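User: Need the bound-state model for zinc ion:
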Amino acid sequence: MAITTSPRGTADVFGENLQNWLKLERQIRAICRTYGYQELRTPMFEHTELFQRGIGETTDIVEKEMYTFTDRGGRSITLRPEGTAPVVRAYLEHKMGQGPLPVKLFYLGPMFRYERPQAGRYRQFHQFGLEVLGSADPLLDVETILLPVELYKACGLKGFVVELNSIGCSVCRPRYREELKEYIRPHLNEMCRSCQGRFERNPLRLLDCKIESCRAVLADAPLITDYLCPECSQHFAQVRSYLDLLQVEYKLNPKLVRGFDYYTRTVFEVTFAGLGAQNAIGAGGRYDGLVEEVGGSPTPAVGFAVGVERLLLALESEGSFAAEPPRPAGFIVQFGGETKVRAAQLMYELRRAGLHVEMDHLDRSVRAQMKAANRMNARWVLILGEEELAAQQVKLKNMDLGTEELVDLDAVIQCMQVEEE
Ligand SMILES: [Zn+2]
Ligand SMILES: [Zn+2]
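Assistant: Bound-state model below.
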């Protein structure tokens, strides 16, 4: 372990990469504003029990992936591994359900899971998510699908597919569960160890096992969509007809399930082929059971989340998202002595006026200063020599046009601002 290396599964974000992050964050905030979602910033850590109850004791996240520790006061604390349970906790704590409904929230920030790091997958990763609480309207299921689709389109992403399913409710799912177990039981010894381990507690999860022999067993398995109760069936039909109305393309995938116990009815996943086996770039669904599970009164809710790193990886793989690097308005080249003093004064005057202007801090030659200005891609180079200073002027070079002119020192701001607009 070297102290000059960040811990495994973490990354520093800077430079060009940071510009892409900022661009994506701007897009996210803009679309959330348009769709009427308020930002909610929850703490980075919560009581461990919130995640045990809100995610489910038998999930991979809770069993193997949480960063859990006992604090100095003897409390069990967990770094948040996902955003939904904290949002529900905050919704209940601040009695948001007593205000206007539905409550529409979004979050954007770091999450923590102890996983094997791979492309786009980190132990500290970032998620953008939406939650709509207090309404069972199928139109809101559609909104949580539509918003990310519009976000991906606004970012220029093309090769993504929305997969959709309904996993029923506490009325109809138990019967399906039993039918599925009946079907699988005689083949259980042909399945992988992880499927065998999940069979009793969470048989639906076997449907999304990626291992070939498991997929072969499940090829003719009964499908949840054939077991939906009339209410779930009607809800699913409404979701699909709204998606058609709004021209959102999707693919029905009756084997799509989710790793969380609290999902009901609508589940969806957005996949992107360019990312290999772990190809999801967003997932969501309805979770009408969660608020009650966390201690509130029964409250319908629906949400969506996407890993920012994975989305950026998808965007970068299509090559259409590169953010423009920031470009200084000006760079002041000076000749030392009095010209440096006056250059410093001018630089801060221009910055006060809102222009990003730089100068040399390494006592470099004029030639090297010109080089630095070029490297930064400054729009203007302001040359302040002894002669210019004596005349209270500066030589203003437009680096895009290759033109230059002598300008009075007190008129520099106007000349540069005109160009900025
Ligand atoms: Zn149902
Ligand atoms: Zn398996």
